[in-house]
Amino acid sequence: MLIQPKIRGFICTTAHPEGCAAHVQQQIDFVKSRPPLAHPPENVLVIGASTGYGLASRIVPAFGGRARTIGVFFEKPGTENKTGSAGWYNTVAFEAAAAREGLYARSFNGDAFSAEIKQTVIEAIARDLGKVDLVVYSLASPRRTDPADGQTYQSCLKPIGAAYTQKTLNTDKAEVYPITIEAASEEEIRHTVKVMGGEDWELWMDALASAGVLAPAARTIAYSYIGPELTFPIYTNGTIGRAKEHLEESAARLNQRFGSGSAFVSVNKALVTQASSAIPVVPLYISLLYKEMKRHGLHEGCIEQIERLFASHLATGNPPLLDAKGRIRIDDWEMRPEIQAAVQTAWDEVNSGNLREISDFEGYQTEFLKLFGFGLPGVDYAAETEPVRPCSAGA
Ligand code: NAI
Asked: In angstroms, rounded to a whole number, what is the distance separating the alpha carbons of residues 112 and 135?
């Protein structure tokens, strides 16, 4: 099959196996260019392990610290006439690279919110690893079926209290235009917290603990975002922000249950991922942010962020450095006052006419295509490629 990008709004419906492999290899190469982790975890469970921050959280301990990893995700394998999803091909490549280095890697494709997959993963940990000493929770999902009541909840990205009007970017058409997003209803807020809050994270930790597969000093981490005031109405003070507040409350509860210093929330940088490209306003902010951070030599992608998270906080042998609210902050470079001041000035000026000049829209588009394995050096996109690629999660 010849595989080309097919972009529909903010998603690409195709993915390239060799391109995804090249993208994963770039991330592995970056980790190997860094000093090995001083005190890496030994056995890591990553929930949401196939793309974005979760994939990076699998690559860093594996290739920076020879950790054994189990990954859970929700992806589509390829068929003879349809490409698989990028996360599937990323996993195929990750497992092949791990095998070449004699590293244990096992993957499970299914609904992380279900009780069944928790049970399946627990059995695999008990059988293959004994116990895990780090659990990374990096899910981004539009819906969740709660195993307790069987109801399906939908998350939404809306402001709370009042409608919000702001510039946004149609990344497909390179157009900047104003968008008004109506305020969420109480039910939409509750549903978003159900999906993107910490309830399922706690269920995972309780299930792992009661099955006896958590190591005595096991730690767990989940990811959050804060960002600048200009995106507060749609993010931090919106429905997703409410869910992230719940995630922090979950971390506090997990620390009570499993001992202080066992559960963390890390506030990460805004980056191009499949999840962030679906948020209104944020892709325009990211395009302006990339320009400024690159100008200052401070730009990081998922792998650089997560390598710094492990090297500076999780794998030092000491407790992580926390902010006043008990969170790890690897968004510190994004939030530097000089970066934010420059982004705000550019924000006021940006329009469809000057987008390519004052923002790094080109960088945004390049990164977006890379998420699906397109535009990687050394990949022959004119050559036929096999879409069916097996990994330990299936064929
Ligand atoms: P992503 O879309 O790249 O990855 C999401 C992962 O969740 C994938 O592995 C996917 O297969 C998995 N997944 C989704 N639904 C699932 C289900 N039902 N069962 C099993 N797996 C499922 O997203 P990204 O951006 O890496 O987000 C991960 C976390 O990082 C989220 O909590 C997000 O809020 C947070 N974050 C993201 C930032 C960004 O700018 N992208 C910034 C700061 C935090």
From this structure: 13
Q: Across all residues in the chain, what is the average pLDDT?
A: 97
**pLDDT of 395 above 90:** no
Strand order in the sheet with 68-73: 105-109, 68-73, 43-47, 132-137, 214-224, 263-267, 328-329
Is 235 known to be catalytic? yes
Position 172 scores a pLDDT of: 86
Longest CA pairwise span in the chain (Å)? 59
List the residue whose alpha carbon is closest to atom 27 of ligand 1. Answer: 140
Is 328:267 a contact under the CB 8 Å cutoff? yes
Q: How far apart are CA 199 and CA 222, in angstroms?
A: 12
Query: Exposure pattern of 198-235 as b/e (b: 16+ CB <10 Å)?
Result: bbbbbbbbebbeebebbeeebbbbbbbbbbbebbebbb
Atom of ligand 1 nearest to the CA of 276: 41
Predicted pLDDT at 116: 97
- Mention every residue, 6+ apart, whose C-beta is less than 8 A from residue 162: 183, 233
Handedness of CA 152, 158, 163, 169 (dihedral sign): negative
Residue among 72, 74, 146, 201 to mutate when testing ligand 1 (max atoms within 8 A of CB): 74
Return the SS3 of 50.
coil
At 187-199, the pLDDT tens digits run 999 999 999 999 9
Specify whether the CB–CB gap between 234 and 226 falls below 8 A. no
Instruction: Give the bridge partners for 145, in sequence order.
Output: 152
CA atoms within 13 A on the CB side of 241: 16
What the chain holds in terms of domains, given with CATH numbers, is 7-144+190-279+299-332 (3.40.50.720)
Q: Which residues contact 130 (CB under 8 A, 6 or more apart)?
A: 43, 213
